[in-house]
């Protein structure tokens, strides 16, 4: 979900053209991974594409009239936490992408979950600006109850580690749509 969201954002911001996305879609479909077309904007390694997970950090730069932006897509998988630390240590602002799907959110926020570990590492590494993107809301039919449940639980957790939840925007998203 993280790489799909990031790749889709880069595409929507004009950082990559339609023809390239169509090429990724075709290549992904050939591997039985048609839904990975946006993730492949950033996931370049053969192993990443075959396994459907981010292994190494990926950088993408673009400019707005006001800012120079470098997007750092970091791995979410526990086996590649060192790479996630490398990416996060360079960040001015972090976007914590949380899956809203039943079971997915619960696994991430559990005692040993990756959501908890990533938020704690981000704060420890000096990230003070945080945005929480609650992803896959389309899979919950944009359930306001589910969104509110996640906001409540994540707010309580990030407050414990040092973030001010009132200063953290929570945004319901679908990385795919």
TrEMBL record:
Query: Listed GO molecular functions?
Result: GTP binding; GTPase activity; translation elongation factor activity
Asked if the Swiss-Prot or TrEMBL record annotates the protein with the keyword GTP-binding, the reply is: yes
Q: Which domain of life is it from?
A: Eukaryota
Q: Which SUPFAM superfamilies match?
A: P-loop containing nucleoside triphosphate hydrolases
Presence of the UniProt keyword GTP-binding in the record: yes
What Pfam family is a match, any one?
GTP_EFTU
Alphabetically sorted, this entry's keywords are: Cytoplasm, Elongation factor, GTP-binding, Nucleotide-binding, Protein biosynthesis
Q: Can you give the residue ranges of the Tr-type G domain?
A: 1-177
Mind telling me which PANTHER family this protein's record contains?
TRANSLATION FACTOR (PTHR23115)
Protein name in the entry: Translation elongation factor EF-1 alpha
Q: Which gene encodes it?
A: TEF1_4
